[in-house]
Amino acid sequence: MCSSKNKEKIKVLIGIDEIYSSEKITNCFNFRDQYEVVLYDNEKNDSNDLTYNFYWLEYEYLNFEKLINPSNKVLFNSFCIRKGLIRKAQIAFYLRKYLAKSQSQLFKHLPETYVFELDYIDYLDEALNDCFEVEQALESNLSIKEGQNTKKFILKSSMTNKGAEILIFDTKKQLKDFFIKRIENSEDEILDLREWVIQSYIEYPLRLKFYNNRKFHLRVYVLAVGNLKIYVYRDILALFALEEYKIVKKIEDNNLDIKSHITNTCVQLEGVDKTSEEFANAEEECVKRFWDLRFDENEDRNMEIKGNIFKQIKYSISEIFNCLHHEPTVFQPLENAFELYGFDFLIDENLNCFFLEANAFPDFKQTGAFLNDLIDCLFYQTICVTSDEFFDEAKICEPTQMCLVYEKKNRRIF
User: Fold this and answer.
1) Considering the entire predicted model, what is its pTM?
2) Are 214 and 357 within 8 A, CB to CB?
3) Cβ pair 357, 88 in contact under 8 A
4) At 98, phi and psi to the nearest 5?
5) How wide is the angle at C-alpha 270 spanned by C-alphas 92 and 159, nearest 5°?
6) Residue 62: which residues within 8 A CB-CB, separation 6 or more?
7) Can you tell me the mean pLDDT for 92-105?
8) Which string of DSSP letters, residue by residue, matches 154-221?
9) Per residue in 169-181, pLDDT tens?
10) Angle between helices 372-383 and 19-30 (to 10 degrees)
């Protein structure tokens, strides 16, 4: 461990509301002699106080006006402007713009996505006119013959996460009923969320017989540092539904088991007593390490598949940031800041990897008790890549799980 007897300690202010993450971040710093940790207190700490060297706070607690142009050397844990990445409608718009003027192959890793804006339910038809392909497909679904598959879509709110505000549908009526129900629940004829995306639903996801043919998606942690390096954390999570995935030819009343389709852990564990053995068992079934998964009985083929998926993930993430780095009005990386994101990917039955969305301040506790070490390592290596380099401190370990995929001066790395 590095000694800092003759060097002034780096003062760290930590203010993360979620206890799981706060304790893990604090423990990582406490393990290092050169850091001195203080926990943020709303009543005691002033947002104008720049006496600390390192601020790891909730977005709302960060005083960006002071932190962006500090009088001393200060590091903090979030970019101020990044809506172009974390709002689904925004990133859909900018990726489409990027693909229209580049030779990128990123389009192979994106589901068809349409921005959908709706203020009043009476304007649903007009809103769908702006998503002509969706409207046309929904009309065609009405004449689908018995036994044939309809074209399905998934509606997502641009700003929510954790599986909230999602609808899988194949008729305009289902879409209208969804919004009518939201209005009835809010007692307001104006929709509180007006910005949505509609994506082509990936109806044939990869299902592994070793895990009872359950649907799963991948949660990839991504670290953005300064202006700008992008690292992909190699230890990826596979988040499973608890029930077997079954293809539905046509969506009808109560025939779509939403829990077999929506793989977010919070949806899967909803209503289960967190102190119970049932919760512990379900959590272990929901959350697994990607690199431990069995894709094939042949071990060489198994590793080949995982390597190919990881390559697709790294390429997609590097291209996404190459796109956003040219859009400073919606994504502004800062030299003295960094941010951790949770990127979600889905693999189809042909082993194609699709980017779904990116989340700031992801829910790290969804990793569960069984894979605590994955998050411990993530935070520890984040400190190595960000703070140790920023403050020119000696690393006590190499961040071997952090894969550099994009750097401003070199663009894509691999």
Assistant:
1) 0.93
2) no
3) yes
4) -65, -45
5) 20
6) 47, 55, 76, 77, 78, 80
7) 96
8) EEEESS--TT-SEEEESSHHHHHHHHHHHHHHHT-SB-S--EEEEEE---SB---GGGTTEEEEEEEE
9) 999 999 999 988 8
10) 50
